[in-house]
Amino acid sequence: MTSNIENIKNVVVVGAGLMGSGIAGMAAVAGFQVTIVDLDKKLLEKSKEQIAITLERVGRKKFKQNETKINEFIQNSLRNISDSTDLLEVVKNADIVIEAIVENLEAKQKMFQSIDKIAKPSAIFASNTSALPIREISKNSTRLDRFCGLHFFNPVAVMKLLEVIRIPETSETTYKTVMDFGAKMGKTCVTCKDTPGFIVNRLLLPYMSESVRMLERGDASKEDIDMAMKLGAGMPMGPFELSDLVGIDTMKNARDFYHRMAPENELFFPSPLINKMVQEGKLGLKTGEGFYNYK
Ligand code: CAA
Ligand code: NAD
């Protein structure tokens, strides 16, 4: 079985938030024709601004002070991206659909079901879920052999890893194609079975959850916990800085899923602090305030 990467030209990214914008921007840099989809135009406008900022950062890094080359790079990449609120229309032309909507199982199942019969039979469906089982997300799909997880990391432009998740039905051709797709996007691909949190989040979520418990117990301040993990454990960011980057709502959704999976494990008991932050809309960098204030 060989890879079908030469047939992957049109990429549809569903969800134009933090991750969708990052994935769309970097897929455009890699030369794919990308359409990014969200629920309303305002969100797409915000995403476009975010993509432009990212491309500028990537371009500056790549071409140093050469303003002509930087501008050329940005314009060429932007030309590869269009946006839409009409998923059912744009999906007809997709060779691969990458889902990056809210971390909610029912929402993801519903989205994939809505496009199942409309997308080309050859199109590959992939979810960027942080921790939900890919097999559950694909439950209502009639193309299980073309279903997989493609888990990118935040910020997509910087993080070099892509976790590729196979469900038992994922075909060898689909697997090889998405591994090549990841490589074309400049990522190092690792493979993991369809297990909760895959590799990175299976290890990261308990660490992040314990950091919140530490704060709630009053063992140390968030500033000291962050400093300790940066200077004492070599992390680029402390757990609270990282939670703000990831999004408190996304962290809560993943943690709640772990709680449902292992209700006896105290580590994932609902956190009053996290629940309050989500209620108050303090979701981290994306809303201007989380554990820290960015306004
Ligand atoms: N887009 C493009 N480039 C970016 C960027 C972005 N959003 N953020 C940072 N960069 C670039 C900068 O331009 C800079 O480039 P140069 O090296 O050319 O200067 C470089 O990255 C370093 O950035 P900064 O100097 O601004 O800041 P930093 O050194 O503190 O790095 C960081 C920022 C890369 C985010 C770093 O702190 C880091 O690696 N943090 C940890 C991130 C992490 O763990 N991510 C995974 C989260 S878990 C996840 O994603 C899975 C999930 O399902 C929740
Ligand atoms: P986000 O809240 O920034 O963006 C989600 C976007 O999806 C929003 O703009 C929302 O309007 C849109 N959306 C919701 N339902 C939709 C639908 N039915 N159709 C089209 N658009 C819809 O979230 P995010 O941080 O980008 O996370 C997206 C996914 O990626 C989640 O599954 C998350 O767990 C996963 N993930 C997040 C990170 C992270 O660090 N934030 C890292 C890796 C994976």
Can you walk me through this structure?
Residues 10-195 form the 3-hydroxyacyl-CoA dehydrogenase NAD binding domain. It is found in: Mitochondrion matrix. Its EC number is 1.1.1.35. By secondary structure, the protein is of the alpha/beta class. It has helices at 18-29, 41-63, 67-79, 87-90, 105-115, 134-137, 172-184, 200-217, 222-233, 239-246, 248-261, 272-279; strands at 10-14, 33-37, 81-84, 96-99, 124-127, 147-152, 161-166, 188-193. Helix 1 packs across helix 2 (41-63). The mean pLDDT is 97. The structure holds acetoacetyl-coenzyme A and nicotinamide-adenine-dinucleotide. Nicotinamide-adenine-dinucleotide binds at residues 14-20, 37-39, 43, 100-103, 107, 111, 128-130, 152-154, 246-247, 250, 286.
